[in-house]
Design goal:
Neuraminidase; 6-blade_b-propeller_TolB-like; alpha+beta; 2 domains
């Protein structure tokens, strides 16, 4: 260890001397070599490696007896000398040894290699000392099968935190956060319970970084349309009426190509869900469309807008509550049996300065598309946001993002919570409000359930997952957080503002079978799908 520290000191001194030279104007140092060297370094676009995280984790391991994650490794040197040699064969010739800066650069390069060699030995020793690497941060190293080189699909690792250590150690919590956020373009996985690794991820899970756009294309919604074969997301508000929110179409059947689309009657799109005409059998995908929450702006009211992507047509379903303006409709879900739309209305259009001051409470509503009946069904939220049904259709989950209102004015004592309600037996009201979960990072935004009843929500550190009892079982950790995500067959697309990820997992989203046309029209016993919308334990629910 002392040798590595000595090299670090040497590198620091050489770097300081070299930086002093770099600050001089070319006329001051009078060296043509240094001027050429500076130009080549700028053209090389080199990013420096950092070993701070590595040293912190090794220190914590030695001090606390905690195991190191098995994927932790010493970074490779950035090979600047090789790149410079490729750009100019003469630049590093020893004939320039007397030039100002040459010796400092040589010391930095040689010292870095020696330091990294020493750190590899230290890291191996620490791992050998704590050879029971699965005791506290148990990892499953699952390699994905080989794929074409143009696919950015990574080997995936799962870290298993220790609940007991986490209960009494702030340092351990910081260590987990450091591990989880160690990469910008990769997803890390934290499994707080075996059910996350076994039932959510499964044995063959993988991750893929798909694309990055120049705007925040991947913000909300995430609804598949069978006719077009595309997944429809919505972008974020860009701060100007001249640059409104667009619908982002992701062609998941054609190499995930991305395009922006505008629809009539849709000024500022946000949340959305697949829409089926009320009365459609619950296993049928006939008549599929998409209903968007339009937040509105200063010239357009907030509304529910029905879009037919295949024909690029749209129409308004609802744009007021008995003559009163909504604030900014945020998210919506459809009950498979009744066909009713349950949606949230919050103030984000006002908080983001593209809607007038609200004149109505922030509430949850139920809307009957066939009759026009609209009913307020829940209130006392700071900011009702995402909304989702349980897979048995007995409960509704609503996220409250009250911690985040006006930009720069977050109040950490406000809700960052998920509430669960029971749907009354007639399918029209909500009762028995319960605090289901509280996000430890950021706030829960978009929300979905899987067929096992697990609840997923987009949070400040990625997608968090709770079991039906509200216990955190795992996280898909994404640097910078997630606003929403979309289940697809055998996987999930994750929206990270301007970045799009995909994970291949075992869990299946609640609506995937129907939304992708995979649900059977018959139960195999001659009973049509229309028989499956019967009462279930006193509630409108799926077949038993």
């Amino acid at each position: 260890m002392q040798s590595a520290l000595d090299f670090m000191v040497l590198i620091s001194l050489a770097s300081s001397a070299f930086n002093d030279l770099q600050q001089l104007d070319d006329r001051d140092h009078g060296s043509e070599w240094l001027a050429n060297f500076r130009r080549l370094v700028n053209d090389a676009h080199v990013t420096s490696e950092t070993i701070t995280t590595l040293l912190a984790l090794m220190s914590a391991s030695v001090s606390n007896g905690s195991a190191l994650p098995p994927y932790l490794r010493v970074p490779e040197p950035h090979q600047l000398t090789q790149r410079l040699d490729e750009m100019d064969k003469d630049i590093l010739s020893v004939r320039h040894i007397a030039e100002p800066g040459y010796s400092s650069f040589a010391v930095i390069q040689i010292g870095t290699k020696c330091m990294l060699d020493d750190l590899r030995k230290i890291l191996a020793g620490v791992k050998d000392h704590w050879h029971d690497a699965t005791a506290n941060v148990s990892i499953a190293d699952l390699r994905v099968s080989p794929l074409p080189e143009n696919k950015a699909i990574f080997r995936a690792f799962v870290s298993k935190p220790d609940w007991l250590r986490l209960a009494t150690s702030f340092n351990y919590a910081s260590q987990l956060e450091t591990i989880a956020n160690s990469s910008v373009n990769e997803i890390n996985f934290l499994s707080y319970d075996d059910s996350f690794a076994n039932d959510v991820l499964g044995p063959d899970f993988s991750q893929e970084f798909i694309t990055q756009t120049s705007w925040t294309a991947f913000h909300e919604a995430g609804v598949y349309n069978i006719e077009t074969g595309k997944l429809y997301a919505t972008s974020n508000w860009a701060g100007s009426a001249d640059n409104p929110i667009n619908v982002t179409a992701i062609d998941i059947s054609n190499n995930n190509s991305v395009e922006s689309i505008r629809y009539d009657h849709l000024a500022e799109a946000n949340g959305a869900c697949a829409y089926y005409p009320p009365g459609t059998p619950v296993n049928s995908s006939e008549g599929q469309a998409i209903v968007f929450c339009d937040e509105g702006d200063f010239d357009h009211p907030s509304r529910l807008t029905l879009v037919e992507p295949a024909t690029n047509t749209s129409r308004v379903l609802l744009n007021n509550f008995l003559g009163r303006n909504f604030s900014s409709l945020n998210d919506v879900t459809q009950h498979p049996v009744t066909g009713d739309l349950w949606f949230t209305d919050t103030q984000y259009g006002y908080w983001q300065y593209f809607r007038p001051e609200p004149t109505i409470r922030q509430q949850v509503y139920r809307f009957e598309p066939l009759t026009g009946v609209v009913q307020a069904v829940a209130d006392y939220f700071y900011a009702p946001n995402g909304i989702e049904l349980s897979p048995d259709w007995k409960h509704i989950y609503v996220t409250d993002t009250g911690v985040h209102t006006f930009p720069g004015k977050d109040n950490l004592t406000n809700p960052a919570s998920i509430y669960r309600f029971d749907i009354t037996p007639d399918g029209k009201r909500l009762e028995n409000r319960q605090l289901f979960a509280y996000s430890d990072d950021g706030f829960p935004d978009g929300i979905h359930t899987d067929t096992r009843g697990n609840v997923y929500s987009a949070c400040g550190d990625g997608v968090q997952v709770w079991n039906p009892s509200g216990v955190l079982i795992g996280k898909f950790v994404v640097n910078g957080g997630v606003n929403n995500f979309a289940f697809v067959p055998n996987g999930m697309y994750i929206f990270n503002a301007d970045k799009l990820f995909k994970v291949t997992i075992k869990a299946q989203g609640r609506t995937v079978a129907r939304d992708f046309g995979l649900a059977n029209q018959s139960d195999g016993n001659g009973n049509g799908a229309e028989d499956h919308g019967r009462r279930h334990s006193g509630h409108w629910g799926p077949p038993s």
